[in-house]
Amino acid sequence: MTGFSVSGTMFGGLGAITEPGGLPGNGNTKNTMRMDLGAYTPATGSVSDMRVDYSMIDGKLPFVLASTPLSLTGEVSLSMWNMVTVTSWPYNLPGYPDGPPGQLVYTLASMQVLNPTLTIYTSAVPEPETYAMLLAGMAVIGLARRRRRAA
Prior knowledge:
Pfam families: PEP-CTERM (PF07589). It comes from Massilia rubra. This is PEP-CTERM sorting domain-containing protein. InterPro entries: Ice-binding_C (IPR013424). The chain is α+β, with helices and mostly antiparallel strands. The chain has one domain. The strands form three sheets. The chain has a three-stranded antiparallel beta sheet with strand order 4-1-8, with no helix packed on it. A hairpin with a 3-residue loop joins strand 2 and strand 3. The longest helix has 23 residues. It starts with a strand and ends with a helix.
């Protein structure tokens, strides 16, 4: 394995907190995402760890989390850990004058990962036929050069 990556699109929504009449309310919304990606080999231990944090996403955000070039053989374990936190603090609608506060209103906050894709990069391993063709080609070139010198 020569490397790996995870890509996709994060989609977050932060609902606007407004009171009747369009005035800002005293509530709050927040979204946060943390993603950890790592590779581990029993022989050498952890060989690659990556982390990314995103917060206050309102809309789409493409992301790529990729390892540095690696040279791993044998047993390799990949791990991905993802934590999403979405919070919304309510606010009270205004009550009647000199009366109790109105009902609590929670706004919408959301966070999603769309189309996550794990890609593992490996180097190509030539087939035995490839080596045979390489040797045959070198033999033909050698014979052609030998004929030129003899002539």
